[in-house]
Amino acid sequence: MSSPQRTSSRYSATPPAERLPEWLRSPIGNASELAAVQAVVKQQRLHTICEEGRCPNRGECYAAGTATFLLGGPICTRSCAFCQVEKGQAPTPYDAAEAERVAEAVQAMGLRYVVLTAVARDDLADHGACLFTNAMAAIRRRNPLVAIEVLTPDFWGGHRDEAEAIAAQRQRLGAVLAATPVCFNHNLETVERLQGEVRRGATYRRSLGLLAAARELAPEIPTKSGLMLGLGERFEEVVAAMHDLRAVDCQRLTLGQYLRPSLSHIPVERYWTPAEFEQLAVIARELGFADVRSGPLVRSSYHAGSAA
Q1: Which of 91, 116, 286, 295 has its CA 20 to 30 A from that of 76?
Q2: pLDDT digits over 153-171, tens only?
Q3: Is 304 in contact with 64 (CB distance < 8 Å)?
Q4: What is the pTM of this model?
Q5: Measured between alpha carbons, how far is 145 from 55 in angstroms, rounded to an integer?
Q6: What span, in angstroms and rounded, lies between the C-alpha atoms of 101 and 220?
Q7: Beta-bridge mates of residue 223
């Protein structure tokens, strides 16, 4: 197997200008709970975004019976500037047995609420939709009572004509929604002005269109989206993004602080305070979001099960 062709960083390896604020220093959680989950994940040769993304809440989530599995292998075909996951144009071949290993891990860990996400797999004909449908089916064969949330890429590409691309995207989305997840999540990640730098390969309007299509195709399934703060966005731009999400009837929202995974990733422009996150949460609730998680350590799957 050839080694993945990883993209090089465009950022200078300069240390952050300021120390991490006190409110971002969080204990990792119970060591034994972490070790137990990590052992199962390793045994099943799986990946979790909890570990790949070094999530600060993974100990808390594991203790609450929640985990987020990363489907499709460890290599992403997109090159987003914020993400810890490895990037390259030669991802591992499609692993048809992955779904069963995920289901076995869910059963072994006694999880009640599972979040399935995936690397972008633009190399696959369905852009990775089958990764979600196969894993959901395998989990439910063992325990139909496990609640499953999906956090998907945009399923975009494969057609030169935009109308054909939109139709293909809706078909892939429809297949995932037909598997009846309890929540459909697709993140905007950042405000419209910063999309090109932060989310290479994705667009703001395309993501809003995906969320709108999800509401049209499966109105009984709530939709969710999230933004990272600290990339240079302005307060009013965050509020504008929340307005845009509500315009496509997105019901759930997460807002969290971006933390630079390494010196090769896009730098943090500033650290938003807990008071600012709370101010945004108040505005979000006033706009009509049914569930809002807003805070420096909030991530896409934070307290996901409680919203369900």
Answers
A1: 295
A2: 999 876 678 899 899 999 9
A3: no
A4: 0.86
A5: 26
A6: 29
A7: 184
